[in-house]
Design a protein that fits this description.
With about 150 residues, this protein is α+β, with helices and mostly antiparallel strands. It folds into two domains: about 80 residues, Beta-grasp domain (Ubiquitin-like (UB roll), Roll), CATH 3.10.20; about 70 residues, DNA polymerase, domain 1 (Orthogonal Bundle). It has a five-stranded mixed sheet with strand order 2-1-5-3-4, sandwiched between helices. A hairpin with a 2-residue loop joins strand 1 and strand 2. About 40% of the residues are buried.
């Protein structure tokens, strides 16, 4: 079946079976490999993308659910909030192995879009669905605070 998608502000037509997870359409059909497969059950957050500005787990989002919606992947982040998050990530050298980081960044952007000045508790609660096997959680939290400060300045 053919689907019309808006991915990273570009119109795309893809062919996929109904029920195909968005993750596989992004990676296999559109060659956007920044979104990672982690668990396949929406528990780790590695596959996080934005649909209409909201973080969602693409491994459990069927393709038909995003038709007529705006999908943004890590490759398509281009705004003040995402720029501040990416700059903070680099400045604090958050990444260790890096596998989960696209999902972490997508969630952090979602958080700072909703809450410009989150507390540690806000960050921990919002980011709790993103797992980091390298346990860089303290650096992730510090980077979110730094990005928040950059947005204020």
């Amino acid at each position: 079946m053919k689907y019309q998608l808006s991915v990273n502000d570009e119109k795309k037509e893809v062919e996929a079976e109904p029920g195909t997870p968005l993750l596989w359409v992004l990676r296999d059909e559109l060659n956007l490999t920044g979104t990672k497969f982690g668990c396949g059950v929406a528990a780790c957050g590695a596959c996080t993308v934005h649909v209409n500005g909201e973080p969602v787990r693409s491994c459990q989002t069927p393709i038909e659910a995003v038709e007529e919606n705006k999908v943004t992947t890590i490759e398509g982040l281009e705004d003040r909030v995402s720029d501040a998050v990416v700059a903070a990530w680099r400045e604090l050298d958050v990444v260790q192995c890096g596998y989960c980081q696209s999902g972490q960044i997508m969630s952090a952007v979602g958080l700072l879009t909703e809450n410009k000045k989150p507390t540690d508790e806000d960050i921990d609660n919002y980011m709790s669905g993103n797992v980091c096997r390298c346990a860089t959680y303290q650096r992730i939290r510090a980077a979110i605070h730094l990005a928040s400060d950059k947005l204020e300045g």
